[in-house]
Write a structure and sequence with these properties.
Structural class: mainly alpha
Oligomer: single chain
Shape: elongated
Order of helices and strands: HHHHHH
Distance between the termini: 24 Å
Number of strands: 0
Helix content: over 70%
């Protein structure tokens, strides 16, 4: 969960900087891979715009729901725990609905990883952003 959360944050920051996205928009995208209630609060904490964060969270969840089966096949991930953790960390509740369709273990691990990723992001997002500045 830690690596997934760090990767989600770093990918947003690095890609945003590369594309020249304004800092306030970039800060709004940082919590895109966590559940909406926690994402809104993280966005406020970082100085982002919560409405943009909600949009980013929705797009991330829908994309995860649609593309998760393809990505799991592409990277040949067959372990049920790994599938669930990956989906939950990257695409939160909307992705978890796809994980539940895949199986009981996948769904349970996905749901658990939503909480863990949210907690990790609350603590590491400000630290990572300070390091990257």
């Amino acid at each position: 969960a830690l690596i997934g959360s760090v990767t989600a944050i770093l990918s947003v920051v690095l890609l945003g900087k590369l594309l020249g996205i304004q800092d306030i928009i970039l800060l709004s995208f940082v919590p895109k891979s966590i559940t909406t209630p926690i994402g809104i609060e993280v966005s406020k904490l970082l100085g982002g715009i919560p409405a943009i964060t909600v949009f980013a969270i929705m797009v991330t969840g829908i994309a995860g729901n649609i593309f998760a089966p393809f990505m799991l096949k592409l990277f040949r991930i067959e372990n049920a725990v790994a599938k669930g953790l990956g989906i939950g960390i990257s695409s939160h509740a909307v992705g978890t609905s796809k994980a539940i369709e895949m199986g009981e273990v996948e769904g349970a691990m996905s749901a658990l990883s939503i909480v863990i990723a949210g907690i990790i992001t609350i603590f590491i997002a400000p630290v990572l952003l300070n390091i990257l500045k």
